């Protein structure tokens, strides 16, 4: 049996950081188990290549939810990274930390050390922000963050001006003093290449003699000695293998895979485990429960001015931007599809923003035959203004279907399952139209394509966003953190309640979702979690 001090299951946004931090001193040996393969693929490294990885089973788990009544019975597509770097290798790269109030609420709920003032030094330590250092931003860290303010599409300025006319202030830094307003998104790239957690953290760690990374290694079970985790059973190349952890087993599989592996290993709702013939090691009804996610929708417009559609659709345009990227590592392929966005309140009485905006200078309404919409820009000048809710009250769950580790778990998202979520989304989509009606934007709009001018009543708007909304890929809280073992899965030091030698360190521990994209907070969790592990070593 292989023996290491630590076994980290998952090499994603948190797991890559955990492996790097635990191995940095040279004191401890670390084994990283990744179910997927390498991240050394062209469309992974090219920022806009995530349009190609969005459905690619070679790098993507391609999960599906159960038919969701809140989404008009639709089955939602949930891409999750299945490769080194995890979802940080296939995401849209937007760098948003979350609001001060998010983390202060975590601390107020009894999670000592997780308030904003506790976490700001962590964020600054891991960052190398191109915009420069100040009281909010860090430089010199392993993760490079690109300032895109000089390279976005010209239409972005019209969006910013129209949003200002609609009452939203310009915000030069969503990771600064406040989130509210509109501005240009910072993204995780460097020199025109994706800066995933694998590139920033794991690959430097892999150069150390005390780190071993096994790819195509599917963790199937946590090995226990009584109530103590002592190792991992995994499948690799058709062979079952065991690895022993002398100190701790750390789950960093994310909000789908971490609760799945706990349940497969006998940690979870006792009735579910018993029905599947899995011996209960520790009963905890919260494993896989409390699922939270951000849900979003795009409003798409036909414009009077050229958009990226006119460049990214024709063969000569693809050749041009391809050459620009290959020779200069610049141009549209070096950016995210979300050039800009912002945060706003659907009700002025709301204490802080509850909605996030996205601006995309292209549209994908009409796919080619047999092709998914995300891959082909429309043949006319189109652009989209999108949004997602920040702190929805709807809750779902992720539970295993069988005792077979290869079988995907059952994902019940329960989107828009509360009246509050429906009401705020209705107000939010009306605000998109308000932005589009401002003079700076209205001057260049030919027509609203989706949902279209015939959709005007509240009932029709609600029906439309139920039909067309979907995840924006920020599932959290399925192994939520909290001091009360009856209401949480891990304690504030990320140790699994009721067990020894076992932690969960990834976005599944979030007590509640944050205001914005979750990748930054996931990476922070990896850094913070590794600090806690090291503090507890004797």
UniProtKB/TrEMBL annotation:
Which PROSITE patterns does this one have? GMC_OXRED_1 (PS00623), GMC_OXRED_2 (PS00624)
Q: Name one GO molecular function term.
A: oxidoreductase activity
What does the record give as EC number? Answer: 1.1.99.-
Keywords on this record?
A: FAD, Flavoprotein, Oxidoreductase
UniProt key word Oxidoreductase:
yes
| Domain Glucose-methanol-choline oxidoreductase N-terminal, chain residue ranges per copy | 81-104, 254-268
Classification via Pfam families = GMC_oxred_C, GMC_oxred_N
> What cofactor does this one take?
FAD
Which InterPro entries does the record cross-reference, listed alphabetically? FAD/NAD-bd_sf, GMC_OxRdtase, GMC_OxRdtase_N, GMC_OxRtase_C
Keyword Flavoprotein present in the record's keywords: the answer is yes
Which superkingdom does the taxonomy of this entry point to? Bacteria
Q: Which PANTHER family match?
A: CHOLINE DEHYDROGENASE, MITOCHONDRIAL, GLUCOSE-METHANOL-CHOLINE GMC OXIDOREDUCTASE
Similarity-based family: Belongs to the GMC oxidoreductase family.
The protein's name is Alcohol dehydrogenase (Acceptor)
The organism's taxonomic lineage, starting at the top:
Bacteria, Pseudomonadati, Pseudomonadota, Alphaproteobacteria, Hyphomicrobiales
